[in-house]
Amino acid sequence: MVHLIFSSDRAGSDANKMRIEAITSPSDCEAFREEWEALHNNIRPQMPFSSPLWNLTWWKHYSKNSLAANYSFFLHTVRDAQGSLIAVVPWMITTRPGFGPLKIRTLNYFGADQSITEIRGVICEPQNEAAVIAALLRYLQEGNFQFDIVDWMYVGDPSAVETLEQKTPLSFCQINSIYILSLKTSWTALYSGFSSSTKKYMRRSYEKVTETKQKFKFSIVSDASEYPEAMARFFRLHTARASSVDMFAHPDKFTHEKNRKFIYDIFESLFSTRSAIIFELRLGDKVVACRLGFISGNSIYIYYSGYDPRWRNYSVGTVLMIEAVKWSISNNFTEFNLSAGKDRSKLRWKPREFIYQSGFQVRPGFRGSVISHCYQLFKKGGISRHNINKKTQPHAPRHNDAGRDRTE
After folding, report:
1. Given phi > 0 = left and psi -120 to 50 = alpha, else beta, which region is 292?
2. What is the crossing angle of helices 52-62 and 257-272, to 10°?
3. What is d(CA 167, CA 144) in angstroms, rounded to the nearest whole number?
4. What is the pLDDT of residues 291-320, one digit of tens each?
5. Using an 8 Å Cβ cutoff, are 309 and 241 in contact?
6. In 224-315, which ranges are continuous DSSP H helix?
7. For 2-177+357-379, CATH number?
8. How is domain 184-333 classified at the CATH fold level?
9. What would the pLDDT profile of 37-75 be if each residue is shown by its tens digit?
């Protein structure tokens, strides 16, 4: 069941009104799933995390109701004066602990996991973000919901950031970046634009892989019938890379069964529509490196990887990446999304950077001060405490620079 909750007039005319609706259960989302899918396909840059598949599957796997925490479904839609869907807000109310007088109520987004969901927040096209967030802010203020904390995650429009900072006591704490490589019509054209050091690094990577004295072969897995075995190889290689003690540390994101089941279900659904791909590199007859990817229109989004650490000195991860880019060019893709997180292996490709800011609002008063202090301690390690005022330039605060999946 869907209830009309709020109508926000941004400019005093009917043409500029927005209608915000609360969706009471996941099953109610089926009524507008096609609209949501169309919205997801129109968002730039294209990423898998805004789709109805990702969000509703996430709720299926990660929603909880326990003594430690309780998640309440609080998803909202935003429509314009003509009734067109312009935003989906995958909100949930998190209560910690799940009961008692000391519980803290936080309004945050689906995707509260161990970096399985890399980008989360309001789902809308960039040109609508500032207006949508302004309407949501007014909705929360006039609704008197009494949340202890309100998270505002991955805000891309600087004017939306200004709106939040001007109207609320808000602390912005983290900057994240997405890096996107614009592909040329040929590998030669793309390669010619790289620095001499990058070209040398790539040549040396191929020289190293040939030193194995084994023939290397790049291949893709895109057929649903091949998917189960390919995912089993991915999990094995991802764990092997994470378990290596004498290399740059990478946590095993799929050591928990919940994470593994979630991503397996996501890729199983996407493989049925050829919207996912697995890149693999073989030495002889063995797969030694692999990487997951999402396909959306003319864009490839690369996701987590794995490789056999016994071959780490032969640049198998780097060669796999280069071959994946070559394959994308030859198959007429125009964007290669290097995903979230800043590290040297991404920057050498000279990608475009898309910056997102995240922060939180705490209720005023003594209770809010205590909660704010505790919340920042809770976030320590994942979010650096750093306030940003409205005059701060986007590049000034400290980035969350932990490279997610280095290939060196």
Report:
1. beta
2. 150
3. 15
4. 999 999 999 999 999 999 999 899 999 999
5. yes
6. 227-243, 257-272
7. 3.40.630.30
8. Aminopeptidase (3.40.630)
9. 999 999 999 999 999 999 999 999 999 888 788 999 999
